[in-house]
Description:
With 254 residues, the protein is of the alpha/beta class. Helices cover 41% and strands 15% of the residues. The protein is built from 7 helices and 7 strands; from the N terminus they run E-H-E-H-E-H-E-H-E-H-E-H-H-E. Strand 2 (33-38), helix 2 and strand 3 (59-62) form a beta-alpha-beta unit. 44% of the residues are buried. The chain binds 6-[4-(4-hexyl-2-oxidanyl-phenoxy)phenoxy]pyridin-2-ol. Residues 93-97, 100, 145, 147, 152-155, 158, 190, 195-199, 202, 205 line the site of 6-[4-(4-hexyl-2-oxidanyl-phenoxy)phenoxy]pyridin-2-ol. It catalyses: a 2,3-saturated acyl-[ACP] + NAD(+) = a (2E)-enoyl-[ACP] + NADH + H(+). Keywords: Fatty acid biosynthesis, Fatty acid metabolism, Lipid biosynthesis, Lipid metabolism, NAD, Oxidoreductase.
Amino acid sequence: MLVKDKNILVMGVINKRSIAWAIAQALHAAGANLMFTYQGERMEESVRELVNDAMPGSLLLRCDVTNDAEIDAVFQHLEEKVGVLHGIVHSIAFAKAEDLNGMFVETSRDGYLLAQNISAYSLVAVANRARKIMTEGGSIMTMTYLGGERVVENYNVMGVAKAALDMSMRYLANELGPQNIRVNAVSAGPIRTLAAKGVKDFNKILHTIEEKAPLRRTTDASEVADTALYLMSNLSRGVTGEVIHVDSGYHILG
Ligand SMILES: CCCCCCc1ccc(Oc2ccc(Oc3cccc(O)n3)cc2)c(O)c1
């Protein structure tokens, strides 16, 4: 039981295809005590159904990560309910559909800022509250993608947001390390999620990966979940400020 009795907050479950859901299932099987946040009313029913069925009794809290008061409320609630937090899985990102295809140069100011706000700043905002109740040390992980390290056609404004997320992760790792809080990222190969539907020509890159990736196959959410379990467990106690690629090795290709 790699994470037995660890209190871990999972942010970003939308449906059974969510990467956050695959991670939650792995953490639950390994003994974690899970709490969940969901974005807003629209998601509440589907997330509640999923969670209550597989992990009855788990705490479910609403959190729009662009709203500081809602983030404050989540962590006040957690402090009252569990007192101490041992881990956070951050699997939240958004960019406007029109900014996920076509010309990056035409990105609007508000589209650029929205992607940064939700996909990158939210990690900083969450870490700032979490550090106050991670009194026994802890592990924070976020989800990133290759398009934040180099140009991936159509990923556009989300790539710029992921670059900011990756660097934010490193600065957070540096500042929270003395408190024994580790901060890392998992860079997953493309996975068919609801979010992936928003990226133009998503299917094209899947074929390229099957032909070119060292393992000659695409990434499964369960592989990402196992790496998340490693990051949430003591096995990764010496690892912080790291991006772990779970992408069949695709990122090593020029
Ligand atoms: C051309 C790149 C193909 C591989 C993209 C892999 C990937 C798939 C999904 C990812 O997550 C999101 C999350 C939100 C997002 O914004 C969206 C999603 C759906 C609709 C919409 O209006 N925005 C776009 C991608 C992500 O960061 C990376």
